[in-house]
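Summary for the steering committee. One of the milestones for this cycle was to obtain a three-dimensional model of the protein with zinc ion bound, which we needed before selecting residues for the alanine scan. The sequence and ligand used are listed below.
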Amino acid sequence: MKSFRVFRRALPGKVIWAVSPRSPLSASTVLRRISTSASYQNPAPNANVSKSDSGRLVPPSAIYNRPDGLQLETPVEENRNVLPWFWLRDNCRCMSCVNQDTMQRNFKTFDIPADIKASEAIREETGVRVKWSDGHESFYPWGFINAYTTSGRRSNLVNSHERIYFGAEIASSPPQVYYQSVMGAKQGLADMTNKIIKYGFVFVTGTPFDDPEKTKELLERIAFIRETHYGGFYDFTPDLAMADTAYTNLALPAHTDTTYFTEPAGLQAFHLLSHTPAPGADKAAQAAEGGKSLLVDGFHAAKILQEEDPEAFNVLATKGVLWHASGNKDISITPYKLFPVIERYGKVLQRIRWNNDDRGVLPLDRPSGWNNTAISATAWYDAARKWDEILRRKEMECWIQLKPGSVLIFDNWRVLHGRSAFEGIRRICGGYINRDDFISRWKHSNFNEQLVHNSVRG
Ligand SMILES: [Zn+2]
């Protein structure tokens, strides 16, 4: 039996350690930081490894070939340092196991014997080489191994990316990019999508406003426009043909759009193409006609709520709420389940869903009922009142006058929008873009192909 054969191969040259004994941080903290960092550079890929898989060199000090898996002597929590053999075989990174055109798994997982084992596991400088009992050979870069011993998945790049919360002050210097740069080289697109991730919105200045098609082309630089029951790319002036308050001149408090979809629109764009004064209005009246746009950083507001009233935050992040769209003939839309106002993945804020007008009837509390919570309606109203108060704070409200030539694109999962009342006729065009399509474009314009593949394939 060779099962417990120990491999302790000295590395040629100097061992590069991720963890210094003098480091004030815990070993697992350091490893996690390395494995989730979006900015690290990968070493040259091993020739035997599929193109998305080389990773940072963080070798364990030893590896052990156990009956149940590959054990690593590495500073992670207990039970996370044994990788089951079948898991390793199923996740072989080699060029025949990963279709190099589609990056899909290229073999039948369940044709592999459930008890497959390594005949040999060899610790190499850049990763571990496994020779299987059926003759196949696999190589796993340390970057891949480390990601799974320290985390549940490889970094999706978004959750570890820098976000800067904004308030009223950002109105004086909002994030901007130039239309020409976005429509030109990839760097302009990278800059635009990155600002949306970082700040939640961006203005694209210098956009032609004599032809709405130019705005459509700009949005399609990110991804195709999402169709809804209101249509796809829109170009409208207010009337009540469509029964929604957005089509009137009324003020609208801060809200997110399409709360009534299981997956609300990811991005939204507005472009004010023209604003014609009301008939008979003089110059002074024109200047006072309003129609300023309001942006509120929902993640910032959620953070404030969490700090000031953790219980209220917990209520809004837990209790499911009914949302609906019912105002158009033959259209009745509601998500497949009740969704809370604040959604997180782990501790990272993911989505704000807030339009009080589109909110249905709040469920009453049930001890362990349909809503999976025992949060009372009264507790929810108390929490939502606090949330509403934070959203209306002057220091939270970013007011910006839309102008022809300046396209506002914002993250509808993060930023709430609204407007003041206005007079006259505004012609506005815009559209929605799906979240996943936006994130894909952001990744492909900002990161190398290898990191992008790692972030989606694992
Ligand atoms: Zn393979």
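Key point for the committee: The first strand starts at residue 6 and ends at 7.
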